[in-house]
Amino acid sequence: MHKITKAVFPVAGLGTRFLPATKAMPKELLPIIDKPIVQYAVEEAIAAGITDLIFITGRNKRAIGDHFDANLELEHQLAAKGKYEIRDMVRNIVPKGVNCIFIRQAEALGLGHAVLCAAPAVGREPFAVLLADDLMQGDILPTQALVEAFDINPQTTLSVAEVPEEDVSKYGIVRPKGTLPTTLVPGSSVDVAGLVEKPKTADAPSHLASFGRYVFTAEIFDLLRDLEPGAGGEIQLADAIDKLAAMGKVSAIVNPSRRYDCGSKFGYLTAIVDVVLANPEYKDRFLGLMRDRMAKIDAGA
């Protein structure tokens, strides 16, 4: 089995929850301070040993390619002004030895279809999938955990975490084999019997949600090609995963990091706040600003 060196980034979504900001700018380029959301996902993949980044794009997504392309004019201008540190930062957004491939998804037919669009670039190798909406922070990030798990047990593997009961209808929910332990240890493995896409709360087989990070064998492409449209008339990745799970070919790793749902406005704001608080350059001033604003609120100002 090949080592995982390829990652797919489905970035063709319209980002309607962030309109009008995303009318002309891809949601994946919304910044967390000064770094776009998608760059966090790319850095996570590269840290896990990925060398081929495959972006599945759509209309109005050219700016994503521009972000990861070299910009020699900008680099020259920064060097001419003596801003070498900033120039090197811009130059190294994509390190040497890492390749970017852009594939157009001509029609939005679902996440499963977006992943299938990557088949010509992936071939028959195993690969990772990262959804940029999910921002991960921590010492161990899920893509690294998935790649390491795949090295031991080379089969489709999901990153999962427990979600509140009221949120199960928002995710693909795992049907576990047997009974789940009372406490799920980050980084521990879970045997998967099936995956149910956005079930009603009463029908959910667990509170264990699959989200934003996966590794697959090329067998997923064979299933996606023959898959009938599911919920919303789209090719659902969860349906293909469910078929693999029924064959005993899916496992899961409990997410070892902190996850922020940057596809929601509040999740995006939470990510910004926590990233600021983790930054020594801004932390103290930001805390002072918040204390000042809270004091004014308490005073009724």
From TrEMBL:
**Nucleotidyl transferase domain location:** 11-272
Q: What EC designation does it have? A: 2.7.7.9
* Organism expressing this protein natively: Roseicitreum antarcticum
Query: What is the official name of this protein in its record?
Result: UTP--glucose-1-phosphate uridylyltransferase
Reaction equation(s) it catalyzes = alpha-D-glucose 1-phosphate + UTP + H(+) = UDP-alpha-D-glucose + diphosphate
Report if keyword Nucleotidyltransferase is assigned. Answer: yes
A GO biological-process term: UDP-alpha-D-glucose metabolic process
User: SUPFAM superfamilies annotated for this entry?
Assistant: Nucleotide-diphospho-sugar transferases (SSF53448)
